[in-house]
Each structure stands twice: as C-alpha cells, then as structure tokens.
Amino acid sequence: MDLKTALYALADLFMIVAGFTLGWRFIRNYGNYLLGLEWIIVASSGTNFLVYGLVGANETSPMFHLAFFFDAFSRSIGITLILVLGLMKVTHGFKPSLAVDISVFGLAIVGGLVMSAFAEELGLAGAVFYVVMNALTTLFLFYFAWRLWNIGERGHSIAVAAVSIAAGTIAGMYDFYRIPGDDEHHTIFYILALTTWSCQMVVYYFGYRALQNSKDRISAARPLQFSGANDPR
User: By C-alpha distance, which of 69, 18, 72 is closest to 40?
Assistant: First the structure.
C-alpha cells in the first residue's frame, strides 16, 4: 500500500467514525434526526467506498452505483437542505414534524436517484446545480458561525467558517478542476475531500452543541432572574 492509498483509507475511516459516532449523538442527545441520519448516511457512503476499494470492485459492481447515489444524495439535498433545516433547530427553534423529516429525506432520495442516474445527460447543468446548492448552504453556515461568535464561542465560529470555505472549495473543484499530478482515480482530490467532509461533521456537531448549551444556560437562568426580581427582601 503506497502513501496516497494509506492517506485515502485513513481519511475515509475518519469520515466513517465521525459520521456514525456524531450522527448517533445528534439523535440521542438532541433528538435531531435530520442531522443524525444525514451524518449516518455520509458514514454509510464512506463505508461503501472503503469496501469498494478493499475488494477491488469495478464499475459493474452495485457498490459503484451505490457510491454515485450516496454522493448525489448528499450533494443535492443532504449536506444542503437537510443540513440547514437540522441546524435551524438550534438557531431558530425549528421543530420539524415527522412528516417533514420523512418528506425531506424522500426528496433527497429522489434527488440522489435523478442526479446519479442522469449525470451524463445533465452534464454541466448538474455540476452547476451542485455548486449553487453548496453556495446557498454556505451562506447559512456563515450565519451559523456568526451566531457562535455572538455568544463568545470564537473558536467554534472560526472553525465553522473555515471548514465551510474549505467545503465550498471542494465543491467547486469536484467537477471543474483536476489537481495537477493526480491519478485517474482522483486519489489526491478524494483525500482532501474526505478529510474536509469529516471535519465538517465534527465542527458542525460541536458548534451545534456549543450553541445549544448556551441556549440551555440562558433558559436555566431566566427562572432565577424572575424569582430574584420578585424577592421581597
């Protein structure tokens, strides 16, 4: 195994562990099924990618087509609309119903199927769609970073902004730029992409936790303030 292959496998394992671990924490700790399930889906994509490479499967393998589906699922709706709606639970108190959860994941499935099945037919239009969705999502992520900055979580705020910029760069490179010297499998690109996507999941989780903890502290302090204001002493 050469260095590039080892780094690729390590980046993929990082994404798998981050996705499954933090996805479960989103569900268990915050009841956030939108982010939890999306994180788990990204981890599942990484698992499929890793197994595909380990067994030396080719383009006729179902795993190859599944990889395209997972990729289209997250790039079209998953790490765009689902990510925004999931973060809105902590930024705006958004409480999606079960119907909303099911509907948005259903939309992501349709998006994944269409974008993966008709990738060649869509061509440039499909690539532009992905970049536009990522750009719109990045605007919201900058707002998320601003919210963290305002509560004094400067480290988390900078991390969110930095990883979002990196993810936007990866999205722009995906279909429009080939790294000089990269091989036909785009190994260098995928090392960078998998690492960036892994960092996104970690940074957004801890940013979400920081903002939620701040909201919880404010909520806990309000009854005390009210009680003190009416204390006859």
Answer: 18
229/16 Cα distance (integer angstroms): 50
Contact 57, 72 (CB under 8 A): no
- Does residue 42 sit in helix, strand or coil? helix
Q: Residue 62: count other Cβ atoms within 10 Å of its Cβ.
A: 10
Judge whether 81 and 104 are in contact, CB under 8 Å: yes
Length of the chain: 233
Helix (H, G, I), strand (E, B) or coil at 185: coil
- Name residue 209's amino acid: R
User: For residue 170, is pLDDT > 60?
Assistant: yes
Does residue 171 contact residue 229 with C-beta atoms inside 8 Å? no
What global pTM score does this model have?
0.92
Q: Which residues lie below 8 Å from residue 140, measured CB to CB, with a gap of 6+?
A: 84, 87
Number of Cβ within a 10 Å radius of residue 19: 25
Per-residue confidence band for 73, with pLDDT thresholds at 50, 70 and 90:
very high
Alpha carbons within 13 A on the beta-carbon side of 227: 5
Instruction: Specify whether the CB–CB gap between 12 and 49 falls below 8 A.
Output: yes
Alpha carbons 179 and 184: distance in angstroms, whole number:
11
